[in-house]
Every structure is written in C-alpha cells, then in structure tokens.
Design a protein that fits this description.
2 copies of one chain form a homodimer. Chain A has 539 residues and is α/β, with parallel strands linked by helices. Chain A is built from 17 helices and 14 strands. Chain A has 3 domains: 125 residues, no CATH class; 248 residues, Aspartate Aminotransferase, domain 2 (3-Layer(aba) Sandwich), CATH 3.40.640.10; 123 residues, Aspartate Aminotransferase, domain 1. The first copy, chain A, is globular.
Chain lengths: 539, 539
C-alpha cells in the first residue's frame, strides 16, 4: 500500500495511466481535489509554498513505487517476518543507509519522504506481530486501525460538544456502557477517557481527595491533615507516581503486603490503616488492582471494600489490565466486588485490543470530576451557547485539548459486539492456560508462583542446562538473574519474538509472558518456548 | 476514498473486477493477506470469530460503495461545503436516520459500520475547512495526516527505546532542534511530548518544585513552605488547574495584572512577589505567556526574567500558542528573552498546523524531569538491557504508556523544512493583519484593544445597527453581550463558518478571530466579516 499524496487539476492523466489494477490494489491514495482549492491544499500539505508543493506533488505523477503501509501490515501477519530488526541507538543516530533522522531548514524530496516513511517502519518494532508478547498492549485490530484513520482525518478535540458533537456523545454512551458492565446501577455515574492508565489512576486520587477534602482545590495540601494512600506492593507504579505529583509524597503511599500470588493481604491493609491513624495520618484512599502488571493477580475486592466501608475510605480499582475480563461471563467473577468501588481504571487498549491510547477512568458518583477540575474558562465553556452545555467535557479534565480516543473503540464495539470482545478475551486466556500447562512440569522451566494463572500472565524462569539440578544458593540466584536478560538480548538481535522479563521483590529476573493479541495461536506459544530453549541452551 | 477492509485468499477476483480506474483512484484499501494467516487476521479484525469475520470481510467482495475519507477531504477543502451540520445533543442521541450511537451485544453488519463511519463525519465539524476559525488548532495538513496514519499502523508506545526505537530518537532530535530554536545553547537540555499544553504546563510546575524542593516527591507538600505561583490574569487556565491538581491550591496561584493589550505588568509582578514573601509565602515560579489565548499577547519576557533572577524563581514561558512564531525570522522577536526561561511549553498542534495532539514541554536543564518522575519500575525499565537505557523515556513522564505524537510532526518538518513552517506562519499573520486593517475603522465593528495584533488574534465586537451610535451604558453593554452568542448560534445553524467568542474580565462577549490554517485566504476573511454582518444585521 502506498501513501500517495496527490493528483490535482493537472493530473487527469492518472485515470488513464497504464499502471495495473494490481498496483492500484496496493495503493493508498490521499488524492487532492480537482478544483480551484488545489493550490491552497498543496500549500497546506507542503509548507505553504506553491512552488515546493507543486514540485513535491508533481513527482507523484510518475511515481509507481512507494507502497509501504499495506506490505507492512501483510508482513506483520506473517510468522516468517521478523518482529524487529534491532539496532542500537548510536547506529540509528549515525544514520542508516539513506535514512537520516536529522531535521533541516529545507524540504526533503518526496522520494526521500517516502524512504523516511518506509525506514521508520523498517527499523521499528512490529507490535502487531503474533509473536510480539512484550507488553500488555499488543496486536493490531484492523477495524480499530480504520477507526483511528478516520479519527485523524476528523482531527478534532474532545473538549466541547461544539467541535466534537458525535465523538462526545460516543464517549458518553461508551462510558455508560462500561459503568453498566462494572455493575453500577446508578445511571448518573461519570468518567472520561484519558491519555493512559497512569493518568486515569491519577484522576482517581484527585477525585478521592476532592470528595473528602474539597478545600485542597483552593487551599492546597497544606490546609488538610497528612493524607495517606494505600496500594499493594504488586500494584502499578503509577499510584506512587501520582502520589508524588499530586503533593502527597511517595512516603505517604503505603504499600500493602501481598500473598505468594501477588494479591493484597486484607489483614495487612487493615493493620496499616490502623497504624497510620494512630500516627496521626488521615487514610484517604485504597487502590485494589484487578490484574497486576507482572503476576496478573486480582486483589480480593470484596474484602478490601469491607475495610474501606469500615474506615470510610475511597476504593479505587485499577483494572487497567484486568478490566477486559469483565466482558467475559467465564472470567468476570475474578473482579467480583468491583461494583463496590468508587472509581475504576479500565484500559481498552490493553486486554480489548484497542489501538494505543484508550484508557477510561470511571466514577460511580457524578459531579466529582467536574467539581475537582472545573476552572470555567470563559473562552471555551461559554455559558450562553445555544446547545446544552452539560455535554462539554473540558472542565472535567486535567487536560485542555484532548485527543479523540473513543472512536476506534466505539467502532470496534459496533463491529464485534460485546460477544466479539468476549470471544477474543477468552481466546487469549486459553492460550495462557495452554502455555502454563505446557511448561509447568518441565525441568527446563520453573514457575514463579504456583497454580493456574488468573489472567494471561505466566511468570517463569528458564533454567539453562548448567543450572538444572543445582540446589538453591546465592550463586545459582545470581546466575539465574542473568539468564533472562541474555535470552532477551539474543531474541531481540535475532528478531524472532519478544517477551518481557523483570526481577520482582526477592525474585531474580524471570520472564513474564502475556497474551493480549487474539491473532496469536498455540503454534506461537510453542514457538516462544522453543525459542527460549534454543537461545538459552548454552547459558 | 473508501476504507475497504479486505480481500483475502478467496478474493483474487478483485484484481479482475470491472470497477474503473477512477473508482480505484478513490479507494483506500486495507487489504488482507493472501496467505494462511488470513483467517487469523480476520479474527483480529472482527472479534476473533472466524464466522463473523468472514461474513463481514466477505461482504467487501461485492462492495463498490463506501468511500468516505477522500470525499470528506475533498469536500472540506471546498468553500461551498458547510463547516458543520448542526444538531442538538438530544437529536443525535435519539438517533438520526440509520445512525444509532448505542452499543449492542451483537456485531453490526458491515454496511452499517460503513454508514456509522460516514455519519460520524457527516454530523461532525470540519476543523480542516478554510472557514473554521473556532480554535487555536485548525486545518488539516496532508503530510501530517499521512504521518498519523503511519503512526497508528505502527501502534507502539513511547515509553521505551525497546519498542519505539525510531520514534524515541525522532523525539529526541526534534526536542533538541526546538531547544536550539528557543536559543538555549547547552546541548544537554531536556523535554518530552505530552498530551497537550495543559499537561506541559503542569510538567513545568512539577519541574520547578522538584528543582527547589526535591523533598516534595517523597514527603509531599506538607513538608515545605507554602509555595506560590505567579501567572497573568490573561494566562491560560491550565496554570491554575495544575496548581489545584499538584496540591498548591488555586488561591496560591497569584494572578498578575495586565495592561490593556493583555501583557503582564512587570511592576505588579514584583509587587506581588514582595507581598507574598512578606506574608510568609515562598514564591516558586512565574509563568510568562507568549501568545495569550484570547488577545494573543506576548508578555515582556526579558523584564520578567530580570525579576525571576532577582528573586531566584523558576521562569516558565507558556508558548503553546506563540511558540510557532519562533520559526519566523520576521516574528520571533516577539518572544525575545525566551532563551532565559527554565522551561517552555510549545504546541506544534497550534500555530504549526500539526494534527492534534502534539505538545512539547522543553527544559533548559537536563535531569529534572527524570528526577522528578522516576519510579524505576523494574518491569519496564530494566537496568540490564543490551542497549543504552538512557534512551528510555518512560521514567521522565507522568504517563506510563505514551502515544507517539512525534512522527507526524517530524515528517512535516522533513517535508516542509524550517522554511516551510516559516512561510505558512507568516501567511497566517498576514491574514490577521488584513482582517485588522479591514475592520478597524468601520462603524460596524469595535476593536477590543487598540493597535495591530501581535499574533493572529483579532478581538472585536460586531455592533448591530440598533446599537450603533448609542453611548456607553449598562444597557448597551448588556445588549452587546448578547450579540456574539446570537450570531454564533446562527452561524452554527447555517454551518457557514465558525469563530469563537467570550467575555473577558470587564469586557462583554466579543469575537476572537484566529488564523492557524494556511489554507485560509483573504476571501475567507472577507466571507467571515460579511457573514457576521449578514447574521447580525437585525439584532
């Protein structure tokens, strides 16, 4: 597929060109308009200089090359294609053949722009490849992609109904649907799509603070007791990060112990709440995680909710990763109790396969977001508009301009239906179960925690031949710690697959396998296992 | 142009179809792969249900309709096309003919998906229309659009070099170039692209706080003196919003008086700093605006920088709107002194015509962002990777996942060169000058402030016949206050053009005209003026 800018009034020859249907079939054309606005549009495209614009555009008349988006998609779906073609930063910075990242004063030729586009993809990472397992967000949903292309073509801003009427309503409807799926019965909840789970979690803390101490908005943190937040030691680092940003301080983000499966120990939560109160702190907020980043653990929400009710604390559920399971009647019981939360983070760009970014913060109670963030900017949120201004979303947000993240998600939902999401999520979980059953009893592998995974996270060590049978010792742990990084480095250099690893608490580096791309199959799981063995056999 | 998902192994007939070249010319095709991965890809696209996938995909075989992206672009460039087709929220929610926003359990037909896409554009607002003047971000740069399509196809995440090697380097190079243009001579500055100017401004306050009071990160705002921030009464509301979010409190965001042109009065700044110190507050940060939202005013940066140096305060320049003028040798003097700032917000998605979103926060000193936001998440930012991990950007950000906002901007810069941006920015400023000269002496219009605009903002009242010659009075002001909203409502209903209005301080509702779309011409300015007169003549 080519990106072919072009054509124009002088370009009628295009329709009579001798290029084949097959060539056309592989073309993506952004065609220019055959009317008097042509020159202006050239200007818009190419720097407002008609001469440059015509020069660059004109080139296209003879251009038959320059396909890259379609072949990229095609290649990405092929197992034989590498996931990446690894280069070190200094190599790319020095400039690969014909690909120079530096910017200059003068325009590049159109040929060069095409090369730039092609090489940008060539030296990138194919996150849509069925063997890319490196992140919680993988895959490339074609309907989602089409949605994102339409979104960029519409190029508008979510802050007002005035300039994004359809998208604003789609957001409202989708958020309501998500609240229903969470199990909140009140129609009047709230929410907003934000640029990622970390920001969604930040919103949840801001909402809690505003609900209990609205004076912070005007008087700051100095005006209230020393507030503390609780989250598990396995929870996402964004809770701590938000604690730092919002003026709580990371020391006032208290980490709760987890059991061997990475789930919060409710007794430890209650003990730490009591301890904080005794020391004169004011407990405010508890984050329960539904699907931790590394273990994929689900905190026991009902037990945590009981404690929150007892001590009158805000309960947030970070379901950025696990929220997708709410779509599955088979798996949603893992989030039982989520309907008792005051707020929920849920990232459709993770387990639901929506393109990056698509993250929602959902609130049970209406009005808090608005109260918390409202600044009543007169130039945007005029009170005397002709439409119902309660549809303007800008005063709820910490952003001013806000990208349209809703359309790709909405369109996917329309195309798949709730049942489509359910099927695709169930499939990913089955693949993880397959992996778990495949490796759990083999001497080449050691599981990081016992028992079947609850989410698609399968955490394991690969034990190279040299370490098999060696009893646990500091030396063995040190050696084992170096295995995963070595295999990962070899994997990236060979470009065959990608999977994450990390140390965690007292555990040395282990692999964290996750599946969120429904294009993956059992053969891809088999391949990953074989590849780890191949790359690790001499370690 | 159609979005045509499709094809597949059974679809060889496509190449022999009888559709004309012209039809092909108008097609955008996302073609499926003719290999064994086809079914899986269908699954990815259509809910992981082969049957549904095939059903939807298969429909495409006969589909000749369904073009919408290209006609949308074509129409948008035509003056005869309406800027919008206005409907009230309740109208769209009740469902327009065949267009239902509600989500359901089961997949929609492919025909319906196409209708949904077409209607999404139909009932939206054409922000790329040359007569859309409603926001600071307007226009639709075709190279930028191509860049955004490639970005969504690559669908990756900026947090690590590991999965976004090319984009991470492009960001680094572009930020360095922007710092050079600001005039910072030290090679080792810093910066990051963020989801909008409000978040960029928030970063600047966090950076200032971390530089002067790093203990806030761990101990919170309670551990430090009562910090205060200074910004002008004409500055963007995001400074106050960030003050609320970060725990300063809006009362501790002190507003400095402006002169009649909307520029900070340095003497008032100094007086308020002294007053705050006397009251026991600790002044931390001053925001100077380069291009205010409403008046387009440029604060006198040198004079403000002198005061900041004298009192050892962090100087931030919010050049979200005005930053583009740095690209123009004719206009960059308006930002003289910006090289003395500690941090700068600069939104290429405003005056440089990049698609939404593209906003940079730039810092003169390296290391502050990292120090401020670093949480060292082991699962993402492993210390034992095989590449130079200083290229990972995630620990600088308040986000975890971060959308790729750089590519569209980088590609535009390659295609236009610095000179291309300069030409297009100069053109927009010339159009504003044309508007100013056209209306400044006419009895139908009254300027909100005297003198030539510095940016493209032209602020004016339209004086309807009934108010002409009437001396200033409460009654006249009340009547005048209602004029702009009435004209705006009529304008939106007729769909011919869009321009913003607002009250400001003691000024009743006035129009704020801005030009940031280089596709606009003098005829569009003429049209706007005539349209306001036409719609307002009976008021």
């Amino acid at each position: 597929m080519a990106i072919q800018y072009l054509a124009g009034p002088r370009q009628t020859s295009f329709a009579n060109s001798t290029s084949t249907h097959a060539t056309h079939f592989n073309h993506l054309r952004i065609a220019m308009v055959r009317d008097s606005a042509y020159d202006t549009w050239c200007g818009v495209a190419h720097g407002c200089t008609k001469k440059i614009g015509l020069k660059i555009c004109g080139k296209w008349k003879e251009e038959k090359e320059g396909h890259f988006l379609l072949p990229f998609l095609e290649d990405t779906s092929r197992r034989s294609t590498k996931v990446l073609d690894f280069h070190h930063p200094h190599q790319l910075l020095e400039g690969m053949e014909g690909f120079n990242l530096e910017l200059s004063d003068n325009p590049e030729s159109l040929e060069q722009i095409l090369v730039d586009c092609r090489d940008t993809l060539k030296y990138g990472v194919r996150t849509g490849h069925p063997r890319f397992f490196n992140q919680l967000s993988t895959g490339l949903d074609i309907i989602g992609l089409a949605g994102e292309w339409l979104t960029s073509t519409a190029n508008t801003n979510m802050f007002t109904y005035e300039i994004a009427p359809v998208f604003v309503l789609m957001e409202q409807i989708t958020l309501r649907k998500m609240r229903e799926i969470i199990g909140w019965t009140d129609k009047d909840g709230d929410g907003i799509f934000s640029p990622g789970g970390a920001i969604s979690n930040m919103y949840s803390i801001m909402a809690a603070r505003y609900k209990y101490y609205p004076e912070v908005k005007t008087k700051g943190m100095a005006a209230v007791p020393k507030l503390v937040l609780f989250t598990s030691e396995h929870s996402h680092y964004s809770i701590k990060k938000a604690g730092a940003a919002l003026g709580f301080g990371t020391e006032n983000v208290i980490l709760i112990k987890c059991n061997e499966r990475g789930k919060i120990i409710p007794a430890d939560l209650e003990a730490k709440i009591l301890d904080a109160k005794q020391k004169g702190y004011a407990p405010l907020y508890v984050n329960a995680t539904a699907g931790t980043t590394v273990y994929g653990a689900f905190d026991p929400i009902h037990e945590i909710a009981d404690i929150c009710e007892k001590y009158n604390l805000w309960l947030h559920v970070d379901a950025a990763w696990g929220g997708g399971l709410l779509m599955s009647s088979k798996h949603r019981h893992k989030l039982n109790g989520i309907e008792r939360a005051n707020s929920v983070t849920w990232n459709p760009h993770k387990m639901m396969g929506v393109l990056l970014q698509c993250s929602a913060i959902l609130l049970r109670e209406k009005g808090i977001l608005q109260g918390c963030n409202q600044m009543c900017a007169g130039y945007l949120f005029q009170q005397d508009k002709q439409y119902d201004i309660t549809y303007d979303t800008g005063d709820k947000a910490i952003q001013c301009g806000r990208h349209v993240d809703i359309f790709k998600f909405w369109l996917m939902w329309k195309a798949k239906g709730t049942v489509g999401f359910e099927t695709q999520i169930n499939k990913c979980l089955e693949l993880s179960e397959y992996l778990y059953n495949k490796i759990k009893n083999r001497e080449e592998f050691e599981m990081v925690f016992k028992g079947e995974p609850e989410h698609t996270n399968v955490c394991f060590w690969y034990i190279p031949p040299s370490l098999r049978g060696m009893p646990d010792s500091e030396e063995r742990r040190e050696k084992l710690h170096r295995v995963a990084p070595k295999i990962k480095a070899l994997m990236m250099e060979s470009g065959t697959t990608m999977v994450g690893y990390q140390p965690h608490a007292d555990k040395v580096n282990f692999f964290r396998m996750v599946v969120s791309n429904p294009a993956a199959t059992k053969s891809d799981i088999d391949f990953l296992v074989e590849e780890i063995e191949r790359l690790g056999q001499d370690l």
